[in-house]
TrEMBL record:
Transmembrane segments: 15-39, 59-81, 138-154, 160-179, 244-267
Gene3D superfamilies (UniProt xref): ABC transporter type 1, transmembrane domain, P-loop containing nucleotide triphosphate hydrolases
InterPro entries assigned: AAA+_ATPase, ABC1_TM_dom, ABC1_TM_sf, ABC_transporter-like_ATP-bd, P-loop_NTPase, Type_1_exporter
Species in which this protein is naturally found: Paenibacillus zeirhizosphaerae
PROSITE patterns in UniProt: ABC_TM1F (PS50929), ABC_TRANSPORTER_2 (PS50893)
Bilayer disposition of the protein: Multi-pass membrane protein
Domain of life: Bacteria
GO molecular function terms noted in the UniProt entry: ATP binding
Domain called ABC transmembrane type-1: residue spans: 20-304
Compartment(s) where it occurs, according to its Swiss-Prot or TrEMBL record: Cell membrane
Pfam families (UniProt xref): ABC_membrane, ABC_tran
Name of the protein: ABC transporter ATP-binding protein/permease
């Protein structure tokens, strides 16, 4: 998508409504420009002593009618444009949110949440303002100016007098060329510092517990304060420049009024201009002051929204790192998984996280994956979910390259329970039924029982309808993990992946969960990543990763007999348990 396409698409789709709105505003401008003409006529007839009482009433009613129609037409035009603007805002935010879900983790790692939020909040608002107020004010300004010039000519004001009076207006384009890019640059800096502040605020709020426990609130406050100071300074710079620019425009209007007074007044005195035409001229020049001011506003607005539109369009044009192939197949169930010479290096990293991994996982098997921290366990899982893309041909599901399946079907078929399963600020029920909001209550309760969180939940006052998060209850680390585990279990998927998902659960509860997993997962494939031998010892096959390589594989007894890394890990953990029991 190239620059400005987002807006172009929208305007193209709603061109009829926009045309009607612009026509309404043009009609209101022509209507408004009739006022000085009427008053000019009135003055001339008054001066000539031709006015009767009835004429005065007729003129008053005419002025009233012009004012009422002007207001009605303008209000209708403005309402239509504003409504379209609000719809644009909704449409764009919706598109942006769609884009956010499409983009990969790599993009988020680079961008930061504050920046992305500022796209949705500030940038979209600036563009909306430009297309709503921009269209109303530009149409208003241009057509009011044109109508006034035409009416001035109709009123019998000599063209030379109009040219002389309107002369100072010719300076406007020069002012715009000078101020425009400068305002745009300063506005960009303000936008960037607002994004930095949002990011800092978000980080401080997310890390508030840590700040408190380390008693470093002052440091946190100072760090946030520094980002706010930056904004004020940059905003003031922007305000100074745009105020100077906006004040110069009406100043030029005033100069043109002075010129018209000098030359027009002289012409009335020597009889070459009627008093009515002179009155009309001064009134027209007063009216013109408004559109001039609007031109200033529109330019400022366009500068601001131009930068915003550029940013939004750039984001919309981002191509996700991981995406579907041309004609992706639907993955219905995972039968077997095959890794052949899988080597993977994270983008920007020099060392591979996985090296020449060969592995076959049969349907119904439980595979335990252990290894020291940083050995590549989570990387392997991320590749299976295509959070990062594995090299072509290195990873097959049901005999087909993983890239041939649609991302949606791959991720919805696999049940994945990460270590830090995020819980949303909604009810426990909605959190568990995350992948299927219509899941029956019995299934949700069953999942909670298997994850051994059921007893905790029913002790909450609203049981499964208890709200979590900011306005609800706070779960302990272990309760959070088990709720997230229940979310994975109710999918009853052909492939369940537990990525260190019981690390915060005590040993007794873990044992219970594993026992229920063994009975409910019969015939289905389960991958258990863990630091604890106790979590994988019953697996059909266990692999040990060491610096991204497959160091050992076998069953628990086989690996113990090998006296290798696994056996050493087992010994260490047994000793740890023994020490804990002795204390
Ligand atoms: N997004 C990333 N970008 C670059 N390198 C990464 C990224 N994620 C992980 N790594 C690196 O890849 C290697 C393997 O990491 P991985 O998270 O797979 O290890 P792990 O075995 O799951 O560790 P842990 O048990 O601590 O979760 C590590 O050296 C890590 O620093």
């Amino acid at each position: 998508m190239n620059d400005k396409e987002l807006l172009k698409d929208y305007v193209k789709k709603h061109w009829a409504a926009y045309t009607i709105a612009v026509l309404l505003i043009i009609a209101s401008n022509i209507d408004q420009a009739l006022l000085p003409l009427l008053l000019g006529h009135f003055t001339d007839r008054l001066q000539q002593g031709l006015l009767t009482m009835q004429d005065v009433i007729r003129y008053s009613l005419l002025v009233l009618a012009v004012a009422v129609t002007y207001n009605a037409l303008f209000a209708l035009g403005q309402y239509t444009v504003m409504k379209l603007g609000r719809r644009f805002e909704f449409f764009t935010r919706d598109k942006l949110f769609g884009k956010f879900s499409e983009l990969g983790v790599q993009y988020y790692a680079k961008q930061g949440n504050g920046k992305l939020l500022s796209y949705v909040l500030n940038d979209v608002t600036y563009v909306r303002e430009a297309i709503s107020n921009g269209i109303t004010q530009t149409t208003n300004a241009v057509f009011l100016l044109l109508s006034c010039i035409v009416m001035m000519l109709i009123s019998g004001i000599p063209p030379l007098l109009i040219c002389v009076s309107a002369g100072p207006l010719l300076l406007i384009p020069f002012l715009v060329v000078y101020f425009g890019p400068r305002i745009r640059e300063r506005s960009r800096r303000v936008q960037e510092s607002i994004a930095a502040m949002t990011e800092a605020a978000e980080e401080q709020l997310n890390g508030i517990r840590i700040s408190k426990t380390f008693a470093v609130e002052e440091i946190a406050r100072a760090r946030y304060g520094a980002t706010v100071d930056g904004i004020t300074e940059k905003q003031l710079k922007l305000v100074r420049l745009s105020s100077l620019f906006q004040s110069l425009l009406p100043f030029l209007g005033s100069i043109s009024l002075v010129i018209s007074l000098l030359s027009g007044g002289f012409m009335v005195m020597n009889g070459s201009l009627t008093l009515g035409s002179f009155v009309a001229l001064t009134l027209y020049l007063r009216i013109i002051g408004g559109p001039l001011q609007q031109i200033g506003n529109v330019i400022n607005m366009m500068q601001r929204s131009g930068a915003s539109l550029e940013r939004v369009n750039r984001l919309m044009a981002e191509v996700p790192d991981v995406r579907d192939s041309e004609k992706p197949a639907r993955l219905e169930a995972v039968h077997d998984i095959m890794l052949s010479g899988l080597t993977f290096t994270y983008p920007g990293s020099s060392l591979p996280a996985l090296k020449n991994l060969n592995l076959s996982i049969r349907e119904g098997q439980t595979l335990g994956i252990v290894g020291k921290t940083g050995s590549g366990k989570s990387t392997l899982i991320h590749l299976l979910l295509r959070i990062y893309d594995p090299p072509e041909g290195s990873m097959c599901i049901n005999g087909r390259d993983i890239h041939t399946y649609s991302l949606d079907s791959l991720r919805s078929t696999i049940a994945y329970v990460p270590q830090d399963g995020f819980l949303f600020s909604t009810t426990i029920r909605d959190n568990i039924a995350f992948s299927d909001r219509a899941a029956p209550m019995l299934l949700i309760e069953d999942g909670a029982r298997q994850a051994m969180i059921y007893d905790n939940i029913i002790r909450f006052p609203d049981r499964f309808d208890t709200r979590l998060g900011e306005r609800g209850v706070t779960l302990s680390g272990g309760q959070r993990q088990r709720t997230s585990l229940a979310r994975g279990l109710i999918k009853n998927s052909s492939l369940l992946i537990l990525d260190d998902s019981m690390s915060a659960v005590d040993a007794v509860t873990e044992k219970g969960i594993l026992a229920s997993l063994r009975s409910m997962r019969k015939g289905k494939t389960t991958l258990i990543v863990s630091h604890r031998i106790s979590a994988v010892m019953h697996a059909d096959q266990i692999i040990v990763l060491e610096e991204g390589q497959l160091a050992e594989s076998g069953t628990h007894p086989e690996l113990l007999a090998r006296q290798g890394i696994y056996a050493a890990m087992h010994k260490l953990q047994e000793e740890g348990l023994q020490d804990a029991a002795d204390q």
